[in-house]
Write a structure and sequence with these properties.
- The chain is of the alpha+beta class.
- β1 and β2 form a beta hairpin.
- The radius of gyration is 17 Å and the shape is globular.
């Protein structure tokens, strides 16, 4: 998201970035990679990398380590937008496997 505002002759460009709490992988694609172990954990980063190099990894997603940090720093509550991110990731998995959950 980009917000541009001007005040007099000055102009300010602000880039608003939402936190990505969920990283998808599967079908030869991945949001993450092996060099993201601090964010995705070892297993999440390696699953992403295996998907990127074409190994037959079932589609899935990883919650970032930032979700855990947020949980403990915010009275054991999850980020408000996490549920929506997980619903989107589950929908992507459903589309990739051609099946619906539950």
């Amino acid at each position: 998201h980009t917000l541009q505002t001007s005040h007099g002759s000055a102009s300010l460009l602000v880039v608003l970035m939402a936190t990505q709490w969920v990283y998808n992988f599967g079908d030869g694609e991945a949001d993450g990679s092996a060099d993201m172990k601090n964010l995705l954990g070892g297993k999440g980063a390696n699953l992403a990398q295996m998907a990127l190099i074409g190994l037959p990894v079932p589609p899935g997603f990883t919650l970032t380590t930032e979700v855990c940090t947020h949980y403990y720093e915010n009275d054991q509550s999850y980020p408000a937008e996490l549920a929506g991110h997980v619903r989107g990731a589950l929908s992507l998995v459903e589309n990739r496997v051609g099946q619906k959950f539950g």
